[in-house]
Design a protein that fits this description.
Length: 113
């Protein structure tokens, strides 16, 4: 088992050392606290969990892509910049999607819809 999951747990540890990944995990924790305070339904919890996982996953993939790009070229390379920008765009898309879902759910609870 350790052979299969060891690298994955190492990856989580490495990802957590990156500031952007830590920030996403903190924001996810804040969302979970808000969910408990507002007593989310089963379906709403599923949406929250999926959104948090999607954002953290894309942030970790973006971090890996940044490391690969930096490894391949220590000097500025517009092709590597383009790759990094696309990966960052994926994180932004995931974050906007998650934020939109959270706002819809939270406003529904706050307004009492």
């Amino acid at each position: 088992m350790k052979k299969k999951f060891g690298p994955a747990f190492n990856g989580l540890k490495e990802g957590f050392m990156h500031e952007a990944v830590r920030l996403q995990m903190i924001l996810g924790a804040v969302a979970v606290i808000a969910g408990f305070v507002l007593h989310l339904s089963y379906t709403e919890w599923l949406i929250f969990i999926l959104c948090i996982g999607m954002v953290i996953t894309t942030e970790m993939l973006n971090t890996a892509i940044e490391f690969i790009g930096s490894y391949l070229s220590r000097i500025y390379d517009p092709k590597i910049k383009r790759i990094k920008d696309i990966a960052a765009g994926a994180v932004l898309t995931a974050s906007i999607t998650a934020l939109t879902a959270a706002v819809v759910i939270l406003v529904h609870h706050i307004v009492g819809g």
